[in-house]
Specification:
By secondary structure, the chain is of the alpha/beta class. It has ten helices and eleven strands. It has a nine-stranded mixed sheet, with helices on both faces. A two-stranded parallel sheet has the order 1-2. It binds a DNA duplex through helix 2, helix 3, strand 2, strand 3 and helix 7.
DNA sequence: GCGACAG
DNA sequence: ATCTTGTCGC
């Protein structure tokens, strides 16, 4: 099994797929957010399905009122709330009990035809193997990349800061804006942010503003399939990366601050008087040097390259 | 019932 | 990450 440098998989248009899938729910039946997510290939995307349906711009064509909670509760509806959603369902002949529950045994439809694109991405992550090794030569510069989103989450600005490692001072930065076409789904962050981030890295390299190693706002090895955005970004761009996350995606922090999953160390919790951050090796770095680089550059909670990238991208997005 | 699965 | 149409398990 080839574990690296496979071509990056095609990123599906989940928005369009969700809208099309729900048109196949027969009249008088309902489905659930989880069932639609399963048709996409991963039930954990249920919440993303909800978010996508909440942005439905054509309720005449796409009957999102037919999607209810997994316990049979009617659930939310942007255009008129639960009252309107219940009215539409009743008009289809669906009985709703006094406590607002639909009998899913009777009305449920889940037999969607789909090629399950998320399952394909999941498999790609399963095959992906991060290269973990020592950085080797001395670090002179460290970069930080972060992405900020517009209110509707359709556009984003990413910033790559270039820092002098020893001085912990910013030397330069690079900006990239882009449309965002993939929703946020836990453990699938790569597919949302890699397009904009890889463009950003390329632009920084062309401008001679790239660093020896790049801190990424997200995880590397701390990931259910050890395939966080930091690792994938490193592999795609051929750069050394380190993951720095503000909350723990998976695994458990021990008293020794190491994060373990299935008895393997996948990262480290770093606490320097602030709320902790969770560091993991991304691509062609290892945990101990990752932790020491991050720790040395922490004046505040986030290491300076990331803190500045965050501040810059947020302020640029505002304008 | 409440909290969790990066951003 | 913004500004909230989920689901499951502890």
């Amino acid at each position: 099994m080839v574990k690296k440098r496979e071509p990056f998989p095609e990123i599906p248009d989940l928005y369009q797929m969700v809208y099309e899938l729900i048109t196949y729910i027969p009249k008088g039946r309902v489905s659930t957010y989880g069932a639609v997510a399963e048709a996409l290939g991963d039930k954990t995307a249920a919440r993303a399905v909800g978010k996508i349906l909440s942005e439905n711009s054509n309720p005449e064509l796409y009957p999102c009122y037919k999607i209810v909670y997994s316990d049979g509760a009617v659930g939310n509806y942007r255009l008129g709330g639960v009252t309107e959603k219940s009215r539409l369902l009743s008009a289809d002949g669906i009985k709703i009990s006094d406590d607002g529950i639909i009998d899913l045994k009777r009305y449920f439809f889940g037999n969607f035809v789909s090629d399950k694109p998320l399952a394909r991405l999941h498999e790609y992550q399963d095959r992906f193997m991060p290269e973990i090794e020592s950085i080797g030569s001395a670090i002179r510069t460290v970069g930080g990349v972060d992405v900020s989103y517009s209110g509707d989450s359709k556009n984003a600005v990413a910033v790559y800061t270039l820092f002098d490692f020893k001085m912990n001072k910013m030397l330069d930065y690079t900006i990239q804006s882009d449309k965002i076409c993939f929703p946020y789904i836990p453990s699938y962050l790569s597919f949302r942010e890699l397009p904009i981030l890889s463009k950003l890295i390329e632009k920084a390299e062309l401008g001679k503003k790239s660093a020896d190693v790049v801190l990424v706002d997200g995880n590397g090895l701390i990931h259910p399939r050890n395939s966080g955005v930091a690792s994938m970004l490193g592999a795609v761009c051929g750069i050394k990366t380190i993951g720095v996350a503000k909350s723990l995606l998976c695994g458990t922090a021990g008293d020794d601050n190491f994060i373990r999953m299935n008895n393997k160390v996948i990262g480290k919790r770093i606490t320097k008087g602030f709320k902790p951050v969770f560091v993991s090796a991304g691509w062609k770095t290892d945990l101990s040097e990752a932790a020491s680089i991050v720790s040395e550059m922490m004046i505040r909670r986030l290491p300076e390259p990331l803190r500045m990238a965050h501040i810059l991208s947020k302020s640029l997005m505002a304008n």
